[in-house]
Amino acid sequence: MAERWRQPVVPLEVRTTESQGLVLPDGRVHRETALDLRADDVDRMRAGYVCAKCLEPFEQAWPERCHVCGAPIRTEQAAYFAREYGGEERLGSRVSLVEELEQLPERQQEEERRE
To answer: Measured between alpha carbons, how far is residue 16 from residues 19, 20, 66, 105 in Å?
Structure first.
C-alpha cells in the first residue's frame, strides 16, 4: 500500500457556483468552480501536505513551492486556504428520509399539474 502522502485528492463533486464568476468582454460568463473534498483531504491541505491550487500531495509539509504548478505554498497557501475554503457544507437533502418520503406524493402532484 502506498504511503499516506501519496494518496491523491479526489474531489467528491465538482460544481459551478452561482455566486461567483468572471464576465468576459464578449458577455460570456465563466462560473467559479467549487470542489467538495473529503474531510481528511481538507485536513491535509490545511496542514500543508496538499497544494490548495492543483491538489498535488507533498511528502513534506509546507514546501517552498508546489513542484507541479509552482504555487508559493510556504508563504501564501495558509492565506489562500483561509480566503477560498468555504467551510463545511452538508451534501444531499436537508430533511430526513422519512420527511422526504412524506413529501413525494405532493411533489408528484405538483409535477403533474405543471405538465
So the answer is: 9, 9, 25, 31
